[in-house]
């Protein structure tokens, strides 16, 4: 695996490659990232991965400085798997040589709901860096995890509207044995919080079950889920039932007729904010 920190060298390495597969990450790799890479490798060749902790997508009170930077460990993990041909790990100066005044702003109906309500600049930061990374790597396919369900939808819409010649593939959420979705933020959990953390996924499963039973309406299910998590000591941002197609609320009729839904959750346990979702 070649580790490259500058854009020109990356382009030189990839010159003439027509089916580049790409997995963008912020590093601190775990099994879920490696599965994304495996999938990408099956859909393109060569595979490029990137590691870049993108300041633009962190709010002022978020954990940019605390975000784990573990480049040497990450390189060792990727070398062991042997899927990645080039790791692109640019410095901030390389990717943002001047203040990034051009930004990609997602539409409010997609970018200001759910995560966007609690992290107002998040999707603008994600889209801006993903567009820049796509411009550097010029992939034919790129793989994103369903764990960040809204991010996946936002990136897909951006690619569609800008007619970017890249296919976005979705990878299923990878979970620990007890159901907790794998995330770099799990490492911040204390032993006690780690033991409690699977409750988020269990509550999503309960929401899924309640939708299937159709005894309660969507709002009642959301309210019960919030109440349940709060009673367990979580600080809940949202527990929401939305349409898979556009993340908007289903009408009562759509709900009754079995519209494909997704239950999405964001909640804090102690100081750590976790997100998860489950398709229904
Ligand atoms: O999901 C992530 O790790 C990041 O949001 C991404 C897509 C690498 C952009 O910084």
Structure description:
The protein is an alpha/beta fold. It has helices at residues 7-14, 31-43, 71-81, 92-95, 108-111, 115-118, 122-137, 149-161, 191-196, 199-213, 218-231, 252-256; strands spanning 2-4, 21-25, 47-51, 86-88, 141-145, 167-171, 235-243, 261-269, 272-279. Helix 2 links the parallel strand 2 and strand 3. The chain is globular and about 60 Å long. The site of pantoate has 10 residues, from strand 2 and helix 7. Pantoate binds next to strand 2 and helix 7.
In a few lines, what is going on in this structure?
This protein has 280 residues and is an alpha/beta fold. The protein is built from 12 helices and 9 strands.
Unreliable stretches, pLDDT < 50, 5 or more residues?
Answer: none
Strand order of the largest sheet: 1-4-3-2-5-6
Strand content: 15-25%
Please give the count of helices.
12
Net shape: globular
Q: Enumerate the distinct ligands.
A: pantoate
Based on CA atoms alone, the radius of gyration comes out at 19 Å
The SSE string, one letter per element, is EHEHEHEHHHHEHEHHHEHEE
Content-based structural category = alpha/beta
Q: How many strand elements?
A: 9
Average residue pLDDT? 97
Indicate the topology.
Layout: E1 2-4, H1 7-14, E2 21-25, H2 31-43, E3 47-51, H3 71-81, E4 86-88, H4 92-95, H5 108-111, H6 115-118, H7 122-137, E5 141-145, H8 149-161, E6 167-171, H9 191-196, H10 199-213, H11 218-231, E7 235-243, H12 252-256, E8 261-269, E9 272-279
Parallel strand pairs: 1-4, 2-3, 2-5, 3-4, 5-6
Antiparallel strand pairs: 7-8, 8-9
Bound molecules: pantoate.
Keywords: ATP-binding, Cytoplasm, Ligase, Nucleotide-binding, Pantothenate biosynthesis
Binding site for ATP: 26-33, 145-148, 174, 182-185
Pfam families: Pantoate_ligase
